[in-house]
UniProtKB/TrEMBL annotation:
Residues 127-221 form the Acyl-CoA oxidase/dehydrogenase middle domain. Belongs to the acyl-CoA dehydrogenase family. Pathway: Amino-acid metabolism; lysine degradation; Amino-acid metabolism; tryptophan metabolism. This is glutaryl-CoA dehydrogenase (ETF). It comes from the Bacteria. The keyword Iron does not apply. Its EC number is 1.3.8.6. It is an enzyme of class 1 (oxidoreductase). Its cofactor is FAD.
């Protein structure tokens, strides 16, 4: 892609090296198989240890076998992975930005040592169970409840409730579950196979087909005291993890947009209509230019978020701005790219419509457009308008 603004000149040698390594992985391991995985509705679990070896699982976390890379390096990795497919980037996000971050930020030393090294290696898989059938954008209304089982320091918990749209739940080795208690919202680590836990993959999806999302039920699940994430209190716990995921999405969406643009550009340069390439017509050039404008601007926006994050200055409303803008623009770009491909664009031989379908999910999860609009609206006006 033409880097008109010379964005590469703003990246360090280490950042460029990370980007090239993940880009090569995407070309070699994701692109050749993604059409088949998407059509068949399967996630390639064999990639998990390869992604661990690549160093992108819990990429931003330090210690406990985690890579400890910068926010910008993680963002560049997310961009390249989503250029392959949103489902692959989502796996990395659920594993690292959600499940591993929850354990790293809120877990005990024993919990960190038990889970994080093998999760960073892709040997164990985690999930993050927050959303419920009737509590998506309003997690404070969750009905899943954990009540004390016994008294004293040895008292455990009994967990009941249901979650929906939980990525990786049916293949997870550990579920990070957020539940209401008599003392507010708490997080729990629930090992796979615990009695009373049922995870059922959601089928017949029109989006994110090369990924796993599940309904999960908890029916009298008995947990020991060691299951509690001891440092997590209230919604601050899950929201801190969601902000990590939202940050990665701001980068990842630009990967889907860039891949859609590149597919349309290549097609327009090769496809002849009325005796000349499609790229030689004014209307086609206008479409391509508009795509390039938003990709360059969106990438600069993501990079600014990354620099702020690495400096410890990134604020929630800034993350909302990046997620809202970049996903919205990426969907527009993917749809417009499909128009250049004509009828051929509705097949899995080309990526734009697959990206557009995936981005409808990305636009919804980790905060809808409406939620991020209201976060920014509150920042601008000082008035909360969520209710």
């Amino acid at each position: 892609m033409s880097d008109v603004l010379a964005i590469d000149s703003l990246l360090s040698a280490d950042e460029l090296a990370v980007r090239e390594r993940v880009r090569d992985f995407t070309e070699q391991r994701i692109r050749p198989g993604i059409a088949g995985w998407y059509e068949d509705g399967v996630f390639p679990l064999e990639l998990a240890p390869e992604l661990g070896e690549l160093g992108v699982l819990g990429m931003h976390l330090k210690g406990y076998g985690c890579p400890g890379r910068s926010a910008v390096e993680y963002g560049l990795a997310a961009l390249e992975l989503e250029a392959g497919d949103s489902g692959i980037r989502t796996f990395v996000s659920v594993q690292g930005s959600l499940a591993m971050t929850a354990i790293h930020k809120w877990g005990s030393e024993e919990q960190k040592l038990q889970w994080l090294p093998r999760m960073a290696a892709g040997e164990l898989i985690g999930c993050f169970a927050l959303t419920e059938p009737t509590a998506g954008s309003d997690p404070g209304s969750m009905k899943t409840f954990a009540r004390r089982d016994g008294t004293g320091d040895d008292a455990g918990w009994i967990l009941d409730g249901a979650k929906r749209w939980i990525g990786l739940a049916s293949v997870a080795d550990v579920l990070v579950v957020w539940a209401m208690t008599d003392d507010g919202v708490h997080g729990f680590l629930v090992p796979a196979g615990t009695a009373g836990v049922t995870a059922t993959p959601i089928g017949q999806k029109l989006s994110m087909r090369a990924s796993i999302q599940c309904d999960v039920t908890f029916d009298g699940v008995r947990l020991g005291p060691e299951a509690l994430l001891p440092a997590a209190r209230g919604l601050r716990g899950p929201f801190s993890c969601l902000n990590e995921a939202r940050y990665g999405i701001a980068w990842g969406a630009m990967g889907a947009a860039r891949d859609s643009y590149q597919a349309a550009l290549k097609y327009a340069q090769e496809r002849l209509q009325f005796g000349r390439p499609l790229a030689g017509y004014q209307l086609t050039q206008e479409k391509l230019v508009n795509m390039l404008l938003e990709i360059q601007k969106g990438t600069l926006l993501a990079l600014q978020l990354g620099r702020l994050k690495d400096a410890g200055k990134l604020r929630p409303e800034q993350i909302s701005l990046g997620k809202l803008n970049n996903v919205r623009e990426a969907i527009t770009i993917a749809r417009e790219a499909r128009t250049i491909l004509g009828g051929n664009g509705i097949t899995l031989d080309y990526s734009p419509l697959r990206h557009a379908a995936n981005l409808e999910s990305v636009r919804t999860y980790e905060g809808t457009d409406e939620v991020h609009t209201l976060i920014l609206g509150q920042h601008i006006t000082g008035l909360a308008a969520f209710r």
